[in-house]
Write a structure and sequence with these properties.
220 residues, Rossmann fold, 2 domains, two-stranded antiparallel sheet, binds adenosine-5'-diphosphate, binds zinc ion
Amino acid sequence: MLDEARRGEPPRMGGVVEVICGPMFSGKTEELIRRLRRAQIARQKVVVLKPFLDDRYADDHIVSHNSQRVPSVRVESSEDVRLLGMNADVVGIDEVQFLDAGIVEVVEELADSGRRVIVAGLDLDYRGIPFEPMPQLLARAEYITKALAICVVCGHPASRSQRVTGEGERIVVGSTDHYEARCRSCFRAPIEEETHAKDANVVAEEMAGIAEGGRRQQDA
Ligand code: ADP
Ligand code: ZN
């Protein structure tokens, strides 16, 4: 469907998709900010977007764990990305894994229309399972950067986000407090039942810090 729809107009020159992926704390946001700032210095028209779900630190900025920040616009859906992206030369999206599956088509369209699209997101969820729609974006991208953090257990390069919240505990906003970077050998996947039975949307909500009872539990 997606690829058929694209057979109409020939893509414009210069469009490109860049994906920055990796676990939490690997510097994805830092790297996204670095690229977007350089585009701004070059006086390109830059729009910076993040899904509504990502509540960490600030309402209207993308913010890295080392407190770098760039003003951003919140989006609720891939349709918002399409509308806002059309007005820019460079479109940056942080936490792209929290957007709906339609983002794949939107990113392709924006790049086909000559834009530079830079997206950052988790490639794996806390179970160590690929986080849709990242695999789709990675396969279509021209450039891929896989960032690694430092394993908090052994100090080796970390590719996994370990959930460290106690079992049954409610996940709250500011959810990065409940995760730590781990390498392949120090990572412990949750019990089998939870790993495979859980709905992918529930996992996404948990990682975005939304508890069953609603959002902003921490501030309440
Ligand atoms: P991401 O967007 O991938 O979650 P950020 O760009 O927000 O990452 O933050 C990266 C920063 O996180 C690093 O520069 C460092 O200051 C901090 N940090 C905290 N814990 C770790 C860790 N275990 N490994 C690497 N960096 C860490
Ligand atoms: Zn380790």
